């Protein structure tokens, strides 16, 4: 049985996952010298916002940027390894899906991927790239995924375990 996802309050001290680790939220009243509205520093997620809704928006934007950075690295690397090239890759927020692949060759990745451990995020990227070859979840698809990532089934289980806390 799956556990109920946690509910975010966007308050000081609340814990947010990033890269499979935990960051403690610290809301700042003034923008730091760096000018960044959101930064991860020394186990803390520093957010320049006094209102919960503004903090939520800034944090979502930050996770989206982190996921885009991850995708810019992983998609070309795995595209080359697998010989599968997406038409386009888009990062955006979704409540349920971690990724999807359209028949057009466009891949969508959830902005919350940056919350997960790197290996699990990599699994999602490989999973979606393999859909470029097999647009279903049949045995040939899973064989393709497991050829690329021999630990794919273990990573899939880890995804299910981490998804409870990977919410915004």
Please give the structural blueprint.
Layout: E1 15-18, E2 21-28, E3 38-41, E4 44-48, H1 52-82, E5 88-92, E6 99-101, E7 106-110, H2 118-130, H3 139-148, H4 152-162
Parallel strand pairs: 2-4, 5-7
Antiparallel strand pairs: 1-2, 3-4, 6-7
Structure description:
There is one protein chain. With 168 residues, the protein is α/β, with parallel strands linked by helices. The model has no long low-confidence stretch (mean pLDDT 94). It has helices at residues 52-82, 118-130, 139-148, 152-162, and strands at residues 15-18, 21-28, 38-41, 44-48, 88-92, 99-101, 106-110. Strand 1 (15-18) and strand 2 form a beta hairpin. Helix 1 (52-82) packs across helix 2 and helix 2 packs across helix 4. It has a single domain (15-162), classed as Zincin-like, CATH 3.30.2010.
């Amino acid at each position: 049985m799956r556990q109920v996802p946690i509910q975010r309050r966007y308050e000081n001290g609340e814990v947010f996952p990033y890269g499979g680790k935990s960051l403690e939220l610290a809301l700042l009243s003034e923008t730091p010298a760096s000018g960044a509205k959101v930064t991860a520093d020394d186990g803390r997620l520093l957010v320049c916002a006094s209102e919960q809704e503004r903090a939520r928006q800034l944090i979502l934007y930050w996770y989206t940027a982190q996921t885009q950075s991850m995708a810019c690295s992983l998609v070309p690397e795995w595209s080359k390894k697998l010989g599968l090239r997406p038409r386009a890759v888009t990062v955006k927020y979704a409540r349920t899906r971690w990724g999807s692949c359209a028949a057009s060759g466009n891949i969508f990745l959830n902005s919350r991927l940056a919350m997960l451990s790197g290996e699990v995020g990599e699994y999602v990227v490989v999973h979606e790239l393999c859909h470029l070859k097999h647009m279903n979840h049949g045995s040939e698809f899973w064989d393709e995924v497991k050829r690329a990532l021999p630990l794919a089934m273990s990573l899939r289980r880890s995804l299910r375990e981490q998804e409870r806390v990977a919410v915004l």
